[in-house]
Structures are given as structure tokens and as C-alpha cells.
Amino acid sequence: MKITVDNNGLNVPNIVDIPYVVGDGIGPDITRATKKVVDEAIKIAYGSKRKINWIELMAGEKAISKYNTPLPDDTVKKMTEYRISLKGPLTTPVGGGFRSINVTLRQIMDLYANVRPVKYYPGLPSPLKNPEKVDMVVFRENTEDVYMGIEFPSNSKEAEQVIELISKLGYNIRKGSGIGIKPISKFGTSRISKMAIDYALLNGRKSVTIMHKGNIMKYTEGAFKEWAYEAAKGYGDKVVTETDLAGKSVQGKIVIKDRIADNMFQQILLRPDEYDIILCPNLNGDYISDALAAQIGGIGVAPSGNMGDNYAVFEAVHGSAPKYANLDVADPSSLLLSAVMLLRYIKWNDPADLIEKAFVNTLRDKQVPQDLARHLGVKSLKTSEFAESIVQHMVQK
Ligand code: NAP
After folding, report:
1. What is the pTM of this model?
2. Would you state the pLDDT for residue 99?
3. Is 274 in the same domain as 286?
4. CA torsion angle for 377, 291, 119, 271 (degrees, to 10)?
5. 287 and 327, same structural domain?
6. 331 within ligand 1 shell (Cβ under 6 A)
7. What is the pLDDT at residue 348?
8. What CATH number is associated with residue 107?
9. What CATH number does the domain containing 195 carry?
């Protein structure tokens, strides 16, 4: 049965239809492993009372060979209709005027937040001395900023027109410059700020840090900061700003603070335990989330979700790694932990907890795929063996 929505949010039936896209390259291997672990976890947690009825949708190379498009209309229609889905990595088609799959889905489903939890699990390789201090969630605005792709090439008619218009406003742009536009709106900023603060409240988090470059880009990044603080004001005494705290500590309220983007990069390395939810415009989010992923084992284990209001697509952070396609060697952790996010999104927390605990114990026993094994200097497991090992750890609890 399909997920529906009412005034209280999502209604998730006990036997729930969830669409998934296998993906290209390593997609089939990691999707198979992920579904196996998720299905077992649900069975252990709920017996036959609850179940995911997986519905395969076509996208990527499979769809190109069948329908001559990487994203058939039916796939978009069903992902929207069923609201929540899981997506394997897709190879970006070279040439040929194809629409970008991620951009299309983001626009149609209005998935305005890219949410990336970055948490260290003991046993993962990390360049930090105390990686256990890393436990953050990045909320990256998904629809504005330079990501909108409004760009005009050097010497184009459009670039020349913009240069002429700007000169009338009193600014001199060098002739022949390429032009990029960076729009950031109050509407876009307010809604992602609310999503981040709601998440912080719901999950007992301590702080939300607005990451911006407002000292230089006052009316885009600076405005993002101001509008985010303004959105926070709507939460009354559930939140407090760092300035109002004036060095005192507080329990049970979300502390709202801001940091300039370049400083944020040293903060996550030097004082990671002082940061929790990171709220940022698109480009800052792009940079900081990969830098954070590197601190906790790399993109092979970093999960993500693209979220709107009651719509979400969960996907691995990495790409299709074609050189490992169908070799049963890829690391399924990123997609698996994205599926854990999906389970938490539909409030099936018991199987999500089971998977996370078994994942930690599997790492503890150094039963890992090759990307982690080579850093840890241990013998590697195949993708399928790693999934089986996680299942065994769940059974043993
Ligand atoms: P990639 O697929 O992420 O792979 C780059 C390297 O990262 C691999 O060669 C491998 O490193 C490592 N890696 C990534 N995921 C891994 C996993 N699960 N297990 C083990 N190792 C993993 O990036 P890419 O080669 O630049 O991109 C390949 C294709 O994917 C491109 O067409 C790109 O456009 C697309 N892509 C899609 C998405 C998406 O669908 N969301 C995201 C990014 C890229 P080693 O070689 O060091 O072992």
C-alpha cells in the first residue's frame, strides 16, 4: 500500500510500497545487499506485521537501453506518487542532451534539502585523532545559489548584456568575463532553516550552526544568515542564540549560532564536538559535506537524503564506480545507511537501530569490504558476504 499524507504528516501502512532504482555500475551489487539487510531487520523487529514491498523503477543505463531515456516519465510519476524512495548511483550519460536525473527529480518533487548525517562508527578509518567526536547533520539548500546553474559563457551575447546592465549600476566587470548568478531567497532560506530546527528539536540535538560567507557576499550569504535567525525566532523559547547565551550553558534548548564558511572548515577538524546541525546554502554544503565525510571513513560510507515536505529520495553519496561493477566487491554502507535514514523518516526506528548496531559490531569484528579492508590491513569480504555478516550480527543482537 502507498504512503499517504494528512495534517499530521505521513501515514505509513504496515505493508508499505517503496520504489527503488537499482542504479548503474556497482548499483546492482549494493542495492541487493542493502535490500537484504533492510528486509531482515524489519523481519527481526516486526515479524510479519510490517514489510517493505519494493517496487523497481527504471532509470540510468537500464532505462536508456529500454526506453532511450535515463529517466522515463513513469519513473518520475511513481517516485512522486509513492513519495519516499531509494536510489542507487547513476552514471551520468556522456553527451546526447539527456536531462539530469537528480535535477529533474529535485525540481518535480521540490526536494529542497540535501540532508547528510556524518557520524563516526568505531572501526572506520579516519585521519582524525578523535573521530568519535564527529556527529553532525548537514542541511544543504538544494534549489538556489550557484546550483541553479544560471551561467553565461565568456563573450556570449547574454554575458555581454549582463555586463552592460551591471555597468549601468555603477560596477565594472572586465569584458569577456564569464558570468554566474547566485540567487538566495528568504522563502528558500526560511523553509530549510525550519526543516533543520525541526530536526534538531525532534532528535534532541544541541545546536544549529549557520555556515555562510556573509562578510563578503552580504545580500546572498549574509541574507541567508539573517533569514535563518529570523526563522529561528518563530520557535520562541525552544531556541536561544549563542549571543544571548553570552557564554552561559543551557539545557533543553537548541542553540542557534553562525560561523563564516572558511572558519567552519577548521572548526570541524579542531573542535568537531562543538558542532551538531550545520545549515548552509548550496555551495558551502557541497564542500563541507565531503570534507566531513572524509573524517568518518569517506564517501563509501556516507549516507544522504534529498527531502521536501513529505517527499524524499534517499541515495548513496558516491557514484556508480564502474570499475567495480558486478564484481561483488563494492561497499554497500553508504546506500545501507541511506536506507536507515529512510526507515527513520517513516518512523520505523526499531529496524533502523538493529541495522546500525549490527553495522557497528560488524566493523568491530573487522569484517569489511575492500575499500575499508585496505585501510585497516585486514582480509576483505565481498559485498554479499558483508551484507550476510551484518545480518548474522543482527540475528545474534
Ligand atoms: P564514484 O563512482 O563515486 O567512484 C570514485 C571512486 O570512489 C571509486 O573508483 C572508488 O575508489 C571509490 N568508491 C566510490 N564508491 C565506492 C563504493 N561503494 N565501494 C568502494 N569504493 C567506492 O565517482 P566517479 O568515478 O567520479 O563517477 C562515476 C559515475 O558516477 C559518473 O558517471 C558520475 O557522474 C556518477 N555519479 C553519480 C552520482 C549519483 O548518482 N548520485 C554521484 C556521483 C557520481 P578507488 O578507485 O580508490 O577504489
Report:
1. 0.93
2. 63
3. yes
4. 110
5. no
6. yes
7. 97
8. 3.40.718.10
9. 3.40.35
- For the chain, what is the domain count? 3
Q: Tell me if 144 CB under 6 Å of ligand 1.
A: no
Residue 321 Cβ inside 6 Å of ligand 1? The answer reads yes
Question: For the chain (length 397 residues), average pLDDT per consecutive 10?
Answer: 92 97 96 98 97 96 91 93 95 68 82 95 89 96 88 95 96 95 97 97 95 97 98 96 90 95 96 97 95 89 93 93 96 97 96 97 94 91 98 85
Q: What is the pLDDT of residue 98?
A: 64
Q: Is 315 in the same domain as 246?
A: no
**Cα–Cα nearest to 82, from 122, 107, 40, 52:** 52
Q: How far is the CA of 171 from the centre of ligand 1 (A)?
A: 42
Closest residue (by CA) to atom 26 of ligand 1? 319
Q: Ligand 1 in contact with 315 (CB < 6 A)?
A: yes
By alpha-carbon position, which residue is closest to atom 31 of ligand 1? Answer: 91
